[in-house]
Design a protein that fits this description.
A hairpin with a 7-residue loop joins strand 3 and strand 4. About 50% of the residues are buried. Strands 7, 8, 9, 10, 11, 14, 15, 16 and 18 form a nine-stranded mixed beta sheet that branches. By secondary structure, the protein is an alpha/beta fold. The chain contains 16 helices and 20 strands. The protein is elongated, with a radius of gyration of 24 Å.
Length: about 475
């Protein structure tokens, strides 16, 4: 889908339809009435004939003989906050696509309340809402051909361009996550990282199983041992000339999780192509950071495995000794994510980072605690927590801080080792998983763990997300990195 930023007269604009918000009392935005008086008068005349007040986000339309348009589409918006703007914009584009329209002009939703910032949220909601993964559907609709975003200034144009970059990174991640495990193996995922670096200021190192063994990445070797697709470790780096901070992002990359010998039941194995969501998110963040040219050095560390049952699989009761000397007794081969993340966190220590953030679809316990739409945030650093929560408040991606309750450490103390990879009870599973990771995090850096098991992949559409991968928390991390130096 092509996009364009347009700041001229409405008379000069040619499109199948004009898309605008409307308030529940049938008022048009003052910004629209001020800019396009003649069109506004016609629309208000038609609105005065309606009796039923529209519901929030409801979209309705009628023929529009003004200028070069066939229709006008209106979306009701009661509360013009950022996420309301995103949702209304996505509903407008979804309706335009359903009507078979090909080129539409979208007025910035929420401009009265948010000013030029509304351009950013409108573009973001439109592009996230228009996303679909139809690669494997013959004859699938191509949807809209072009969206023209109406604006008023150069500031609006800059916001439009930034929204294109960030939304493009999110949709890149969604494409990767939605690909099945027979397409994305650890080695193919590593190739995707190499492809991403082409044309961007990114450096990529791919470690094969021999180099992984040489670095004593015992967790990656153990978890990846049961698959015919060997493990990989990827280090992606973005190094601007004079970086103000050094941040390491670690993403869990399990390209498929069967549970290993602790085999998952069938209903929990479906959707496990999404267990690489953290790894894909890290690649998406690096993509956006490089395209935006942020003044912060960012390293992406991505351990990649396929967790399968086989004669070479690791077993319950196996003992894994990591490079930092910590020993772990395996109690479930389905708690594999923390084992491969441990290797990456140890590796991160050698990069002397200021901040380390790991992102993982780590525990079902986090979904039980917070539901499908909210990620769990774990950190001892109040300032880091505050900055991440401020970032998610601006992006509409939900984070909720959970405690690193040290009283639960006794649940992951091993009988014969330093640690065990799951707790002794089913209680506090998201917390004990975070406590496990904390034992491997670089001691001199601020560290946070984000458990995205709930919102990374949706079983039904929600707000401006279609069913499937959401690309979370790319937008929050890009927002955080954009402000981390402030």
């Amino acid at each position: 889908m092509k996009t364009e930023y347009f700041s001229g007269s409405l008379d000069e604009l040619q499109a199948d339809a004009l898309l605008v918000e409307v308030y529940r009392d049938f008022r048009l935005p003052e910004a629209f009435k001020g800019a396009f008086k003649k069109a506004a008068l016609f629309i208000e005349e038609r609105l005065s004939c309606l009796e039923k007040k529209p519901d929030n986000f409801e979209v309705f339309y009628f023929p529009f003989p003004e200028g070069g348009f066939k229709f006008v589409l209106l979306s009701c918006l009661e509360s013009p906050d950022a996420d309301g703007v995103r949702t209304a914009a996505s509903k407008l584009l979804n309706k335009a696509e359903a009507l078979g329209l090909k080129r539409v002009a979208l007025f910035p939703v929420g401009h009265d309340a948010l000013g030029e910032e509304a351009v950013y949220y409108t573009v973001e909601g439109a592009l996230l809402g228009a996303y679909s993964f139809s690669k494997y559907k013959d004859g699938a609709s191509k949807g809209l051909d072009e969206v023209v975003f109406v604006g008023f200034s150069e500031e609006g144009r800059k916001l439009y361009e930034r929204a294109l970059t960030v939304s493009g990174a999110v949709n890149y991640v969604r494409d990767l996550v939605n690909e099945p495990a027979n397409v994305i193996t650890p080695s193919v995922m590593a190739e995707k990282a190499l492809e991403l670096a082409e044309g961007l200021a990114l450096e990529v190192e791919v470690f094969d199983e021999k180099r992984i063994a040489g670095l004593q990445m015992a967790g990656i070797l153990a978890v990846g041992g049961g698959s015919k697709n060997p493990p990989r470790f990827v280090h992606v780096s973005y190094k601007p000339a004079e970086p103000l901070k050094r941040v390491v992002l670690v993403g869990k990359g399990v390209t498929f999780d069967s549970g290993g010998l602790s085999l998952k039941p069938e209903q929990f194995m479906r959707g496990m192509k999404s267990d690489k969501s953290g790894a894909c998110a890290v690649l998406g963040v690096l993509k956006a950071v490089a395209e935006l040219g942020l003044p912060v050095e960012v390293h992406g560390l991505i351990p990649l495995v396929e967790n399968m049952p086989d004669g070479g699989s690791y077993r319950p009761d196996d003992v894994i000794v990591f490079r930092n000397g910590k020993s772990v007794e395996v109690k479930s081969t389905d708690a594999e994510g923390r084992l491969i993340l441990a290797d990456a966190l140890i590796y991160a220590s050698g990069l002397s980072p200021d901040v380390v953030i790991d992102v993982a679809t780590l525990t079902g316990a986090c979904v039980v605690a917070l539901g499908r739409y909210t990620s769990g945030l774990f950190t001892d650093d109040d300032e880091l927590a505050g900055r991440l929560l401020e970032a998610c408040a601006r992006t509409g991606e939900k984070l909720w801080r959970l405690p690193l309750d040290e009283d639960l450490m006794k649940d992951i103390k091993g009988d014969f080792t330093h640690l065990r990879n799951v707790g002794k009870t089913r209680y506090g599973g998201a917390i004990t998983a975070a406590l496990f990771l904390k034992k491997f995090a670089p001691p001199d850096a601020s560290w946070a763990h984000i458990d995205i098991a709930g919102p990374a992949y949706l079983e039904e559409s929600w707000k401006y997300y279609s069913k499937g991968a959401t690309g979370q928390p790319v937008r929050t991390l890009v927002e955080f990195l954009s402000r981390v130096v402030s």
